[in-house]
């Protein structure tokens, strides 16, 4: 995270209250620090623009101590605003801005206490590992997208027909029939297979004239990888997104259970130590 820092963090003293003093009551103001996360903006925009918008939008909530903007938006697109202000008002004011309009986007505002970051970081780390597995899968280095075939056919029949049609191009490593977008991605073990398949653009499959085009892969996006300006997410990342979301959910369920067990164990050890200390004393 890149940060913006403000020198507004010093606590302010309240005016002397003579009436409260006369009654012998001590009146104090509790100032708290609140960390919020903000989503909804385009994280690929210049950092200075994002920071400026967030500062202008949240400065009415309290003193802005720091603004962090995402440095790896492909994995974590949140920005963080750290506020300091009087009592619970700073928290309430910030949350009231949830859904508010900031130019051409709406702010999704949530409380983001530091103690919850450990769980979030665990999720991001596992997501990165899943993406790394996909990025390093050699089955998806060379591929084409096919459109124009008979989309009324069952999914398995479409795959069978297209496999046969492109079998002369080389070894086919994977076929994905997208029934929603009415498009099929076909991957080859070698670049020559991809090139040969592209040459079949305009050929006919079952009486239908098909269109072939190069599909987005890790190889074709090597220069401007995921999360950078001008990049295109590899098609197989999207294909396996639902499967990976389920893997992430299962992993985090286990992670939370393990974290609870460790916390309970630490608490029991602490209580045992305190009891032992009292017994010795």
Automatic annotation (TrEMBL):
InterPro entries: Nucleotide-bd_a/b_plait_sf (IPR012677), RBD_domain_sf (IPR035979). GO terms for molecular function: nucleic acid binding. Residues 268-281 have a biased composition (Basic residues). Residues 262-281 are annotated as: Disordered. This is RRM domain-containing protein. It comes from Brassica oleracea var. oleracea.
């Amino acid at each position: 995270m890149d940060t913006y820092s403000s020198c507004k963090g010093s606590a302010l003293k309240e005016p002397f209250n003579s009436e409260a003093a006369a009654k012998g009551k001590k009146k104090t103001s509790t100032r708290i620090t609140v960390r919020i996360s903000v989503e909804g903006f385009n994280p690929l925009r210049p950092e200075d623009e994002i920071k400026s918008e967030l500062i202008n939008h949240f400065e009415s909530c309290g003193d802005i101590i720091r603004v962090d903007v995402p440095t790896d938006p492909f994995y974590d697109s949140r920005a963080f605003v750290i506020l300091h202000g009087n009592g619970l008002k700073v928290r309430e004011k910030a949350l009231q801005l949830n859904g508010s309009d900031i130019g051409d986007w709406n702010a999704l505002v949530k409380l983001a206490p530091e103690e919850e970051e450990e769980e979030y970081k665990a999720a991001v780390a596992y997501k990165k590992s899943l993406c790394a597995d996909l990025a390093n899968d050699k089955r998806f280095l060379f591929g084409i997208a096919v459109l124009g075939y008979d989309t009324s056919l069952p999914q398995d029949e479409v795959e069978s027909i297209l496999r046969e049609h492109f079998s002369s191009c080389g070894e086919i490593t994977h076929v994905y029939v997208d029934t929603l977008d009415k498009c099929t991605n076909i991957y080859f073990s070698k670049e020559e297979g991809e090139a040969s398949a592209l040459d079949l653009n305009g050929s006919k499959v079952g009486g239908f004239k098909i269109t072939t085009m190069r599909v987005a892969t890790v190889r074709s996006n090597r220069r401007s990888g995921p999360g950078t300006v001008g990049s295109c997410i590899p098609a197989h990342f999207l294909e396996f997104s639902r499967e990976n979301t389920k893997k992430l959910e299962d992993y985090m369920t286990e992670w939370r259970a393990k974290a609870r067990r460790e916390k309970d164990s630490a608490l029991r050890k602490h209580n045992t130590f305190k009891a032992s200390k009292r017994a010795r004393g």
